[in-house]
Specification:
mainly alpha, globular
């Protein structure tokens, strides 16, 4: 499975070895090493539309930010940034309130659900090869909502 169609395996292990306070440039380099094409402008836009919490001290991105950026990257193929912001807002609000949302657990749960749902989606597509892109996008959107609600 190519990197774009798989959850980003090994990210948590790689993140634990990184600083928990990265500049935007360091965050972009880390994400590029994971096979993602994320730019500084994209990250700044995610913050602007409230899909991502603002950086700590106005300049530093934490491990939780990195995991949220990865999730945003996955979700943006089927959701608008505004929808993603609403889905992730409980985690963002906890961070603003000084609570420490554990995005590691959210990310792990996402990966587990992603594996099970993509397997189910592949089975459905093999039974019905005419499954439209719109139906596939709706299934992905449903998965995203389920992943964040449960």
């Amino acid at each position: 499975m190519d990197k774009k169609n798989a959850p980003y395996g090994g990210v948590i292990e790689k993140l634990t070895g990184c600083s928990d306070r990265m500049t935007i440039s360091q965050a972009v380099v880390f994400l590029e090493r994971q096979g993602l094409s994320i730019t500084k402008t994209m990250i700044q836009n995610y913050v602007r539309v409230n899909a991502l919490t603002p950086p700590v001290d106005g300049r530093r991105y934490t491990r939780n930010h990195i995991l949220m950026i990865i999730l945003i990257d996955r979700f943006k193929s089927v959701c608008s940034l505004e929808e993603i912001g609403r889905l992730l807002s409980p985690y963002a609000q906890n961070a603003i309130n000084g609570e420490n949302p554990d995005m590691f657990d959210v990310y792990k749960k996402f990966c587990e659900l992603f594996d099970s749902k993509t397997k189910s989606l592949r089975e459905i597509k093999s039974e019905n090869p005419l499954l439209s892109a719109a139906a596939e996008a709706a299934a992905c959107k449903n998965f995203i909502s389920e992943a964040l609600i449960n």
